[in-house]
Amino acid sequence: MNAILLCERGDAEAENAVIRTALAILRKRLERPAPPVRRLGDLGDYLSLTLAAETQRVLCAAWLNRRREVLWCGPLFRGDVNWCTTYPRELVREALNHNAAMAVLAISDPADPSRPDDPTVGQFGAMRDALALIGIPVVDSLVITPTKRISLVDMDLMR
After folding, report:
1. Domain coordinates in residue numbering, the chain
2. Were 112 and a residue from 8, 77, 145, 156 both cysteine, which residue would form a disulfide, CB within 3.0 to 4.6 Å?
3. Per-residue pLDDT of the chain (159 residues; tens, 9 = 90+)
4. Is 114 buried (19+), middle (13-18) or exposed (0-12) by CB count in 10 A?
5. Which residues contact 106 (CB under 8 A, 6 or more apart)?
6. 78 forms bridges with which residues in the sheet?
7. For residue 143, with 0-12 CB atoms within 10 Å meaning exposed, 13-18 middle and 19 or more buried, which class applies?
8. Is 103:131 a contact under the CB 8 Å cutoff?
9. Distance separating alpha carbons of residues 104 and 98, to the nearest angstrom
């Protein structure tokens, strides 16, 4: 509670401590053995906290089993402020390596757009298609900006 009061006063060190604690709690929730992810929003919250402060584009994947338990969650590709090159072959290799049954993909966008640009939507589409070839559905694709989380599924940009 004291840390929250310090955060309200603008203490940067206290804010960083609260963020580290929140990330540790969320990471613990996502690690196995863990209950299934009942709401994809919980996973989205973790990815948002992880990626919102990125100053370059970073693509993360969360691999889930059939019961929606998180098998692994972390960064796969890093780029610059404008673009993050992804390799579908490597994405598929990682999915198979973790024995994934489904995936949630997220990319940081430091430019803070109001909606994802066409190249980003196309990039998510290519990754979705690559994973579909081996029977792994992408249950959500997220663009994480410094101020918001945009779900391509919710915007009906991914089918």
Report:
1. 1-30, 36-151
2. 145
3. 566 666 677 778 878 888 888 888 877 766 655 556 667 778 888 899 889 989 999 999 999 999 888 899 999 999 998 999 999 999 999 999 999 999 999 999 999 888 999 999 999 999 999 999 999 999 999 999 999 999 999 888 876
4. exposed
5. 44, 47, 51, 59, 60, 61, 62, 141, 142, 143, 144
6. 58
7. buried
8. yes
9. 13
DSSP designation for 159 = -
Note the pLDDT of residue 12.
80
Residue indicated by tokens 């290799």: 93
CATH architecture of 36-151: 3-Layer(aba) Sandwich (3.40)
